[in-house]
Design a protein that fits this description.
CATH class: Mainly Beta
Radius of gyration: 18 Å
CATH architecture: Beta Barrel
Shape: globular
Helix content: under 10%
Number of strands: 7
Structural class: mainly beta
Number of helices: 1
Largest sheet: 5 strands, mixed, barrel
Strand order of the largest sheet: 1-3-4-6-5
């Protein structure tokens, strides 16, 4: 069988708080949604804003970090692969769903308290440094001058 390529990278905002669960074998799995906005001109030349919505699955320690630090509305970058699941619903109909299984999730923007902008934090499978009381991971970067928001190239 020929091998394909189902790699995806997206940047967007969480549509809901992450949900962390455990498999029967004790492995952590986190699920959340990401909305990605775009603009285009319709046939009449009017600018139209649209959004696409994606379900993301993150496994292991990286998933635990996502559940711990991410909240609805937080911007993230997700790098991973597409995965299609199929099942039979209780009413007997066949269902399927395409999800993004994340290899890496990068936390963008300020922390939960809205400190600063810029800076990011990769949940990359290793545990983060323990923040001081009342501080989120974005405070790790509080001494760095990231410049004005308008300097960010995206």
């Amino acid at each position: 069988m020929a091998r394909g390529f189902a790699h995806v990278t997206l940047v967007g905002n969480l549509t809901r708080d992450p949900e962390l669960r455990q498999t029967p074998q004790g492995k952590s799995v986190c699920q959340f949604g990401v909305a990605v906005g775009r603009s285009y001109r319709d046939a009449s030349g009017q600018l139209v804003d649209a959004a696409s919505f994606f379900d993301v699955v993150v496994w292991g320690v990286q998933g635990e970090n996502c559940a711990r630090y991410l909240t609805k509305g937080r911007p993230v970058a997700v790098d991973g692969r597409l995965d299609q699941r199929s099942w039979e619903a209780q009413d007997g109909t066949k269902r399927s769903k395409v999800e993004i299984v994340a290899n890496d999730v990068i936390f963008l923007g300020g922390g939960a308290q809205g400190e600063g902008s810029g800076g990011g934090y990769s949940s990359g499978g290793r545990a983060p440094r323990t923040p001081s009381a009342g501080q989120g991971p974005a405070n790790d970067f509080k001494d760095i001058d990231f410049g004005d928001e308008d300097d960010i190239p995206f």
